[in-house]
Specification:
alpha/beta, 275 residues
Length: 275
């Protein structure tokens, strides 16, 4: 039996997936935005994926985490951006347009505003129109992934761009983990050998990607708004590890989510291989 895994439809996951087939993965790969993959993972449509950290926080007892892998930042992430027509303190009593694609980023913004900036009365709304249209009209907006990268290049004059990864690091000095490789618990129980092979293939794919980053960038830049050099710099600025510092940052995020009523409890960390 082969695994069915999810792929976030953003450029930041390329180091995991670009060479994954070459490294031996023969299962099915389904693409989607984080919120779609969260739902598929919870519903059993996919077995594993790099999924929202907040999704793990909500349903940790249903999942295991693949050690050593994440999508994180140690400072600026460049693709989780808050656009405001003025300083952050002017957000008080206002509204931020959001895409609804990532609960992790939305709740990170809520924590940053409440815990560190003293701003408690901001409304967050998924508009009927594209968030980019709201931004073009001069309204505060949160964008993530490739859409954030594009918006930063076309930001209205006078707007302030706040990188949430950089703001988190400024206040905490810790990495921020946007996504984790999450495994369905029953899949770990039923297919532990396949999960072990997946872990090896992901590690090999990452190594392959960073050995050939320029070539990968040239191939993937075609059809995007970015040059190969911009993509290369973007990937080099990300962290794909999950070490003790990452776990510490993730634990703080979950603790603050619980403090501010976003999580009912602080989740336990369950890593594969299960013991």
């Amino acid at each position: 039996m082969t695994l069915c895994i999810g792929r976030i439809a953003y450029l930041n996951v390329a180091p995991y997936f670009h060479y994954l087939r070459e490294e031996g993965f023969a299962g099915e790969i389904i693409a989607g935005v984080p919120s779609e993959l969260n739902a598929m993972l919870a519903g059993g449509t996919i077995d594993a994926c790099p999924s929202s950290s907040f999704e793990y926080g909500l349903h940790a007892d249903d999942y295991y985490l693949l050690p050593g892998h994440s999508i994180s930042s140690l400072g600026p992430v460049h693709s989780v951006l808050l656009f405001t027509p003025g300083p952050l303190n002017l957000l008080a009593g206002g509204e931020v347009a959001i895409t609804g694609e990532s609960a992790t980023s939305i709740n990170l913004l809520k924590i940053l505003l409440k815990e560190f900036c003293g701003i408690n009365d901001v409304a967050f709304k998924v508009p009927a129109r594209r968030v980019e249209e709201h931004l073009g009209e001069g309204r505060s907006s949160l964008l993530i992934g490739d859409r954030a990268l594009v918006a930063a290049k076309n930001c209205p004059s006078g707007f302030q761009i706040t990188d949430l990864g950089a703001l988190w690091y400024h206040f905490t000095g810790l990495p921020f983990v946007f996504a984790l490789w999450i495994l369905r618990r029953e899949v770990v129980d039923q297919l532990p050998d396949e999960i072990s092979r997946l872990a090896e293939q992901l590690h090999a794919s990452r190594q392959h990607a960073f050995r050939n980053l320029s070539d990968m960038a040239v191939q993937l830049a075609a059809g995007t708004d970015f040059s190969a050099r911009q993509l290369e710099e973007y990937w080099l600025g990300m962290s794909y590890d999950l070490n003790d510092g990452h776990v510490e940052g993730l634990r703080l995020y979950f603790t603050l989510c619980h403090k501010h009523g976003l999580l009912e409890k602080i989740p336990e960390f369950h890593f594969f291989p299960a013991t």
